[in-house]
Amino acid sequence: EVQLVESGGGLVQPGGSLRLSCVASGLTFRSSWLHWVRQVPGKGLVWVAHTNGDGNSTYYADSVRGRFTVSTDSGKNMVYLQMNSLRVEDTAMYYCARDSLDRSFDPWGQGTLVIVSS
Amino acid sequence: EIVMTQSPLSLPVTPGEPASMSCRSSQSLLHSDGKNYLHWYLQKPGHSPQLLIYLGSNRASGVPDRFSGSGSGTYFTLRISRVEAEDVGVYYCMQGLQGPWTFGQGTRVEIK
I need a surface site. Which of A6, A92, B37, B61 has the fewest CB within 10 A? Predict the structure, then answer.
């Protein structure tokens, strides 16, 4: 069974940085693609970024490009989302999800909450 | 960017009755490989989203057969043949044809 577990969320001031982690199990990590999706509480889902297991192919939403960086550690089956220059509007639950079954996302992690506030 | 539009945004349902919702995309999701890259997710209250239907009409593992998806190109439908209380939550469609991957606004299903 594939499982994804996120961590690293918390409260940070505007302009600050935070690194989210997602550990994956039950899959062949280096041949997997993994996504970050966020959700403002009570609102809809927004795709943020994705990477392959090697971390050498990445793609970002316009709203985070240049501020967020996704990377991997294939030895640890970890995906990271480094978030810099955080804004109040980055406040959201951040989910890690595997790209599966023809570009659908399955499964999803439980999410980690990021709050950007002074 | 492909824009996804769902309707209705709110859907009150009666247990045992059927329900349906729709999803439109701003451009065709039919790839040259013959597949429609449209997926449906359910987010139950307090939980992460879960995959229900992939490629327009294929039920994900463990999804009850009361859920069915149909459609092609730019118009898709999700149907629940007989709603159960556990089906409440927000249903999202998502296009996987090209980045950036985009979601609809969601259809909130609640029991009348």
Answer: B61
